[in-house]
Design goal:
GO terms for molecular function: ATP binding; ATP hydrolysis activity. This is Iron complex transport system ATP-binding protein. The protein is α/β, with parallel strands linked by helices. It has a single domain, classed as Rossmann fold (3-Layer(aba) Sandwich), CATH 3.40.50.300. The radius of gyration is 20 Å and the shape is globular. Bound molecules: adenosine-5'-triphosphate. The site of adenosine-5'-triphosphate (ATP) has 11 residues, from helix 1.
Length: 274
């Protein structure tokens, strides 16, 4: 499923937090959204899965405006893994994952063989088959994150929107999740904080700063020392890590006293605010 964002802007609290963002993710491709805290990544993702209507601009799935289509149609096509998503802790893993089939069911519909197969497949793919009967409240944060991914996959989406999907996951499960997502035959738009993971798994990287799209393209073209340095305010060196860019990052001093650490940056912000 092709995703097109055209001049998308969102204003919150009188401030433009996403400004005039246009980008395309072709069908089956994986685009990573990177940018500093507060740069508008989550807000932009929310416009795609219909949680936040943009003030202007359009979002199209295979050419159809997401905000004009019936909500159920969007829900059947778009799987979502948000930050800090809440789940009913008293539900079992299987029950939670089964909720991912909701957009496919009418009000009085019963679970069909296809629904059950989709849930089983999602549990298998995320390595959760053995957890099916466990209560979600008894799981670790990382295990719960996998349950939420399984719930998104159970809907057999054609577009996956992921907001920091590797939060709470240990290194192996971060890799497992992104390998799994990359190998699915779906389009992916994922906000990631790790430049290394973005460069390893995404076909293209979209860089946001202050709500604006600074660059979008293959990692080797976009994640340059100059762009990383400017956008994240760090010193970056980029090396070849097995055919894709790898990064060494150090703090960059932005203070008059040239002391590179958080507290001096905080002091500067405080003195600017006074
Ligand atoms: N409801 C709201 N009202 C006012 N401002 C908001 C609201 N929601 C978000 N913001 C602001 O919009 C900006 C973008 O927030 P957003 O959560 O999209 O950033 P982000 O890039 O996802 O950040 P992070 O990496 O920290 O998750 C932030 O400055 C945030 O404070």
């Amino acid at each position: 499923m092709r995703l097109d964002l055209d001049a998308v802007s969102v204003t919150l609290g009188g401030r433009t937090v996403v400004g005039d963002v246009s980008l395309t993710v072709p069908s089956g491709r994986f685009a990573a959204l990177v940018g500093p805290n507060g740069s508008g990544k989550s807000t932009l993702l929310r416009t795609v899965y219909r949680a936040r209507r943009p003030n202007s601009g359009t979002i199209r799935l295979d050419g159809r405006d997401v905000w004009s289509m019936p909500p159920a149609h969007a829900a059947r096509n778009v799987g979502v893994l948000m930050q800090e998503q809440h789940t009913g802790f008293e539900f079992t893993v299987a029950e939670t994952v089964a909720l991912g089939r909701t957009p496919h069911l009418g009000f009085f519909d019963r679970f069909t063989r296809e629904d059950r197969a989709a849930v089983t497949e999602a549990l298998d793919r995320t390595g959760l088959a053995a957890y099916a009967g466990r209560r979600v409240g008894q799981l670790s944060g990382g295990e719960r994150q996998r349950v939420l991914l399984a719930r998104a996959l159970a809907g057999r989406p054609r577009l996956l929107v992921l907001d920091e999907p590797t939060n709470h996951l240990d290194v192996r499960h971060q890799l497992d999740l992104l390998e799994l997502v990359r190998d699915l035959d779906v389009t992916v738009l994922a906000a990631l904080h790790s430049l290394d993971l973005a460069a390893t798994y995404a076909d293209t990287i979209a860089v946001l700063r202050d709500g604006r799209l600074v660059a979008h393209g293959p990692a080797a073209e976009v994640l340059t020392p100059a762009t990383i340095g400017e956008v994240f305010e760090v010193k970056a060196t980029v090396h070849n890590a097995g055919g894709r860019p790898g990064f060494a990052l150090r703090p960059r001093c932005v203070c008059p006293d040239r002391r590179c650490h958080w507290s001096c940056r905080e002091r500067r912000l405080l003195s600017d605010a006074r």
